[in-house]
Specification:
There is one protein chain. The chain is an alpha/beta fold and 262 residues long. It contains 9 helices and 7 strands. Strand 4, helix 5 and strand 5 form a beta-alpha-beta unit. Helix 1 crosses helix 7, helix 6 runs antiparallel to helix 9 and helix 7 packs antiparallel against helix 9. The radius of gyration is 19 Å and the shape is elongated. The chain starts with 15 loop residues before the first helix and ends with a strand. The relative contact order is 0.17.
Length: 262
Amino acid sequence: MSTPEREARLVFGEDAERYDRARPAYPDELVDTLVGWAGAGARVVDVGCGTGKATCLLAARGMVGVGVEPHPAMAEIARANLAPWPAWRVDDAMFETWQPGPGDTPADLVTSGQAWHWLDPDVRLHRAHAALRPGGWLALFWNTPDTSDDSPLRHAIDAVYARLQPGQNVLPTCGGLPTPDQDHTPAGLDFGPPVRRHVHWSQAYTTAEWIDLLQTHSNHRLMTPEVRDQVLSEVAEVINAHGGVYEARYDTVLWGAERRRG
């Protein structure tokens, strides 16, 4: 069984190579929006950069900056992935206590992909605000499952979880996305009105690829080994029975806010 000492926010680093291999990146439309907000040559602080999934996309558009990643194994892979862009570096640190280096701030853009919900809610917005220049943007984004998927295969997979893990959210997703009633910022932080956008896209996975991906998500990693093995085995059987390919539908949610120019 999982223990309190096994922090959910850090379980991804237990198998960093699998995370880097299996996790999807982000759609071009999302990156286009960030470039439109901050400019192609923007200076960026990428919070919870993981293995650099989003960071590399920003670097490829000409942005420069620093990734902040608390798990050393994830940070090491991010450095290797960012090797083609020497203007980037990765710091092993929690964003809540991270100390910027010379030239890191004020940033044009603070980003966080799949990670903002793991940060201390009493600290994170204040830290992002302090890192941004007036006119800079905070951009938070998540790849979430498109719940409109009504395919027979999706129903068959859901039935496996309903039997083995009743009542749990079983789609590979994450919690903590800002909800409409949370689209505000604390008093004293001069962010403008939040912007929310959605990008719908899909990616095809073989059975092996989907099983690989499931093992990178905290809701699966924190299952007992016995339950997880049974879930993965039965999901694999279902996908194989439906042709061996699962077309996963994603809804990439972007939440952004501009620091006011004064």
